[in-house]
Each structure stands twice: as structure tokens, then as C-alpha cells.
Amino acid sequence: MDKRWTKKTDARGRGTGVFRESASASPRAEWKTDEKRRRLTGGWQSFTMTAEGERKGGTRMRTGAERGGYPNYLAAAGLDDRAADERIQRTFDLIFSDPEEKFYHDVGEDCGCLEDTGNHDARTEGMSYGMMMCVQMDRQDLFDRLWRFSKRYMLLREGRYKGYFAWSVGLDGTHNAEGPAPDGEEYFAMALMMADGRWGKGHGDYLEEARTILRHCVHQREMTGGGPMWNLDNKLIKFVPDWEISDPSYHLPHFYRLFAQRADERDRPFWEAACGASRAYIALTAHPETGLSPEYAEYDGTPKLLFGKPWPWYSDAYRVLLNIALDTLWFGSRPEYEAIARNAQRFLATQLPEENYRACMLDGTRTEEPAMHPTAITAACAASVIAGRSGQADMWLKRFAALPPRKGPRRYYDNCLYFFALLMLSGRYRIY
């Protein structure tokens, strides 16, 4: 039985309702045989990773700090440290305070939210992204306003989802959904841990609040009778708690490695295992020639087509390149990431300029559907240079350095990814 949404999908193709059971056939997958699935990894299983960054039979990968800090990759594209810092501040101001293009809004006397400008709502994705931006920019005042809004209007206080956050609410806090999306919870938890590391206790205990979120993520079944956000057997994050599929862009092994150091002590072995499982899953789901990852996938790596979209590469999937870049920046290079990054850089170079981007099949077959977030694609591909360098690496860095943030109604998602790529490539996205 294939699970579908009862309500329409949003402008980025994601469901806005609750699940029902349907007897409809599951969407066509691009790979069916075990042999083809084995090819997805390109032989990478021989490099099994542990959460401590070790290869079995090898040596421990060094963290960003151990490798001598966080380099400014954009210097090669003409942005020295001072110019990079100025670009970061201008982009942050664009998001939070520009009269025309900001998508941060004060709400009442003590709260604030980030608006998804394409859908005119506030999402746990954007709220948690905004909190991470504020940690990196040392803006505790804005961080606390975003976190207050999240707790006051999004936190679910009863039922099987108690302790999770409603993934979409109106700008006034009215709920559009009564269920969570796990990419919000994991980013909330990491932003709170970073806030604790940078500022200590604020208006509340940031670290304990992060631990509470992660406690629900793992132990929801015993706490409320609801579904956990991770499959407790294979340690893979779910697309939503009650559906046994995943979203490759949700996989943040670099976060899980830090959760393994800072979460409840009893859950630290789980997060260590989740780190290794997600690194393997990222490699499993990426196409071996193009480096493209699907929007949704089965646990065995088979792409899953949902919400009426006949193509697997769009929107959320772009984030995979950002995620492998940040994992590399913080915890060192990995051969599977290097291959994904090089392949993606080579393939996407053939799709330029930005207005030519299209939704694609994973093998690179183009559709007629224009990519909704072209700035995000270029930003993510440029960031992937951190994970691996192709012959097009310098071109991507220069292209990103010359690329302005997006304006207009779709600016929210593009500029979130743009800002994170800017932080990474300038060496300013750091562990606290």
C-alpha cells in the first residue's frame, strides 16, 4: 500500500496534509536490480566509516580545526577575508533587515519568524535555518526571537506528535499542518547546541532543549506512542515519522557526530551509528555518473517519485551537495564525497547558465520543467568544491563569487542555501 497525502502539495512539491493509505502503484524507480544498486556506490562500501571519522583499517579523519582551521575557498575567486566578511554581512542583512527583500519578520514584542516567500508560511526548516544563521553571526537577540516563535506557535503539546514541531504555520502562528518534518527538528537541535557552545545558557537552557528534541526523535514511541524520526534498526532518518522512506537531503552525518558528543549519554551510541549510516546512504543514493541525488528514496537507495512529480532531482535534493561540503569542512575528506562532488560539478557545468537549469532524471536526462531554485543549485554546486575538486571547480567558485542573492517571490529557499554556501566557502560556518 502506497501512502499519499490527502491535501494538495505546496509550491515545492511537498505535502501539506496528513497521510492516508492508497492502493495505487508505487512510483516508477530508476533502478530495480541489485546489480544496479551496487553500482550506485561505485565500490565505496570498501570505505566503511565510523562516527569518529575513521575508515576501517585506516586512520582517523581530521576535523576542520585539526587541519588548521577553516580556509577561505573564495580567495581564489577574488574574495579575500575582508571581502568575504562584507559579503556575508550584506547577505545576512538582506535576509533579516532589507526593507524590500528581507524574509525575517518581527512577530509581537518578543518573537520573529522567517517566511517561505513562495508559500507565505513559516516552516521548521526556515526557522531552524534562521537560528543557525544567527549562531554563526553571533546574533543571540534574533536567535531568541526565532526560538520563542518556534516554541510558542509550532511546538506540539499533545497527542502522538507531542514534543515535535508543526512543520508549517501561518505568519501569525496559525497551524497549516499538525505533523512534523524531521529536517526541522535536527536543525533545531544542532542550532541549540551551537547556541549553548557559543553563548551558554540564554533565555532557557539551550543544551537541555536540544537534548529534549533529540530524545523525542529517538524515543517517541515509548514517550507518546507516536513514530520516531529515525528508523531505529537501520539508523536512517525518515521523510516523516510514520512513513518508512527517507529524503537524502535530510541526512546530516556531521550533525549526528556532534549529537554523539552532546545528546543524552544513553543515546550517544545511536548517534554514532546514525552518522556512519547516513554517510553510507548519501553515497548509495547519489548517481554514479552525474552525482545527482533523488528528492526521496527507499532505504535501499531506490528513488521514490511522489506528489505527482515524474522526476527525482529537484528542490530539496540540491541540499545534498551542501551537506557533504559541510561534513568535509568539519570532519575531513571522504572518497565517496569527492566522487559525488566531482561528478555533480562536471554534469551541472553542462547545464549552465542558470536559466537553463531543469528538473532532471538522476542520469542527467532533462525534462521541460524549469528548475524552481536556480540560485540554490549554483550555490550548492560551488560549495561542493569543499568536498571534491573537478576540472570545473575554479569556474564554480568564480561563478558563485559573481552571483548575487536572489530577489523576488522565490528568494527564501535560494537565499538560505546561498547564505550557507557563502559561510562554508569563506570558512565562517564553524562548530561552537
Write a structural description.
- The chain has helices at 34-40, 81-96, 124-136, 140-154, 182-199, 206-224, 253-262, 268-285, 319-331, 335-349, 374-383, 393-402, 411-425, and strands at 2-5, 19-22, 104-107, 111-114, 122-123, 168-169, 358-360, 366-370.
- Helix 2 packs antiparallel against helix 13, helix 3 packs parallel to helix 5 and helix 5 (182-199) crosses helix 7 (253-262).
- A hairpin with a 3-residue loop joins strand 3 and strand 4.
- The chain starts with a strand and ends in a 7-residue tail after the last helix.
- The strands form 4 sheets. It has a two-stranded antiparallel sheet.
- It has 2 domains: 36-102 and 279-432, Glycosyltransferase, CATH 1.50.10; 104-229, Glycosyltransferase (Alpha/alpha barrel), CATH 1.50.10.
- It has 432 residues and is mostly helical.
- The longest helix has 19 residues, at 206-224.
- The chain has 13 helices and 8 strands.
Sequence of strands across the biggest β-sheet: 1-2
Q: In the residues, how many domains can be counted? A: 2
**Estimated helix fraction:** 40-55%
Q: End-to-end span in angstroms?
A: 44 Å
How large is the share of residues in beta strands? Answer: 5-15%
DSSP strand tally:
8
The CATH C-level name of the largest domain is: Mainly Alpha
Structural Rg: 20 Å
Helix/strand/pairing category: mainly alpha
